[in-house]
Structure formats: C-alpha cells, structure tokens
Amino acid sequence: MSSPESQERLKEEAKNIRSRVDTLIKDQDTVVRMVRTLCIYAGMITETLLEYEEPDVVMEQAFHRIADMAQAEPAEGEADPKLMPLAYTLDHDTELGRALSRNAAKKLPKGLDDVHEIAIAMVISDFPRWEKSGHARDKMMRLLVESVIASLTFEMATQDFCDMLIEEFMAKGHTTHEALLGLGAVAGSYFKTAQAQMKLPPDADINLLNVMVRESLRHGTPGSKDWAALAASNDSDGKNIPEYLKGIKPSIEEFFGLIGLEDPLGRAVSVAKAVGRMVAVTSVEDVGQIHPSIAKSLAKTGMALGSNYEE
Q1: How far is 120 from 68, CA to CA, in rounded Å?
Q2: In terms of Cα–Cα distance, which of 189, 182, 170, 178 is closest to 265?
Q3: Is the pTM of this model over 0.90?
C-alpha cells in the first residue's frame, strides 16, 4: 500500500501531466480534443507496457481494470471510423503520451509503474466528463483499446524491422545506402497501397515523412528537421528498387500477417518509423555510419521511389 506521501506525489504529477496535455492540445473542437487526449493517454499506457516481459498480458489486465472501474466494456467491432485517427496522426499523439510517461517516471518513486496507475486514473476520471458531452463510454473504451494496440504494434514493428534490416539485409552484403533506400521504398509502397484504398488528405505524404523525422530526432539524429527541403539522393535512379523490395518486404509482410495488421497506412507508418530509427542508427551509432544529411536524403528518396514503383 502506498504511503500518504507517495499518493500526494502521484496526485501532483497527475496534475502536471494534465496541465501539459492541455498545453499540447490546442484544438477547439471538443471531439478532436477528446480523441487526441485519449490517444495521449494510450501512449502513456503503451510506454509503461514496454517495461514488462509480457506487455500483452499487462495490457489486457489494464483494459479490464479500466472497464470495471469506468463501467464500460469496449464497443463491439472496430473503433468508430469517425473517431479513429489516421495512423500517422495516432502515432503523433501516442508518442506525445509516451514522452510524457518517460518524463514523469523520472520524478516518481516507482517510475513507470506509478505512471501506469496515473494514466489509468486519468482515463477513468475523464470518461464521465466526456460522456456528458455526448460520447458513449463503450466507443471511448474501444478507441482507447485500439489506440494502445496500434501504438504498441508500431513500436514492436519498428524494432523488429530495424533488427531484420541489419541482421538479414545488411548481413548479406548490402550497404547502408541500400538499406535506407530499400526500407524507405517499402514504406512508400505501403503508402501507395493506402492511397489506392483510402481517401487521404493532400498532405498525407508529408505527414508520413514526418513520422520518419520524429523517430530519427527521438533517437538523436542531428541537423535539419525539415526533410521536405532536402534534395533527393543523386546516387539512386531507382533501378535497384525492385531488388531491394524483394529482399526486404517479404519478412515485413510476414510480420504484419502474424500480428494481423491489415491497414496499409498503419503498415506504412510502422515501416516509416523503422526508417527514421535506422537513420539515427546509421548516422549516430557505429552501424555503417554515414553523414546524417545523406541518411535523411536516402530515406526520403527511398520513400518517394517506393511510392511511384509499379509492383
């Protein structure tokens, strides 16, 4: 049982987090504010789950606790499409939540275990308020569940794809340049599929590129944050893209098949995050190290080539 002092520290940190969330979310639309806040909470929960050996088990336990205390089971089926954000938007907001969790954990005696409790408490406290605004609890619960699963999936996929690229593709003699171009092309190919199957906003390609940018920055890539202004890599005319896709995409397809991720935009985001992390790995760490600006240009060029490639 926590001491009164520990409880006060948790309450104080919960207030700090709520204040930070209010600062981060500027949207005036009440529906957008609810969805974005819930995605941030989902990201907070995701970050705490990654501390456990069996995150899926702890995740299920957390969902049951929230459902019991909020007296709301998740709505049947998928999340309401009117509420569920596009994959790159969901990634943006859940990553905000993950960052909040990491920062809060440094200040609390039990670290992420305390943050886990705070996140659950914040969800439960907000449900009644959002319900008064006309949002059904079962739909909010479904949105939370799907957002946590998506955020956890993105992280697991990112690490898996980076490992695969190094241990399989690069281990066969492919250079760092080829690896970044190839993985970028895989992200672009999934984005092309998403464009064919969904009506995406005009700036969807920039938002996907920003997934790469944010992930690379989180892992220490120095230099420009404006990848859109980078010149295309001039050492690739795209003729080897079929070879790279053939060498990389089957393993990624197998992973998505195993976890059941069918959304092509979600797949594109998962791979784009891996590209961004590989930019950091290859420009900051000692893995085929290249200059950051070259790594960024290769990643961006690969995505563009993959988006235009006719498979």
Answers
A1: 12
A2: 189
A3: yes
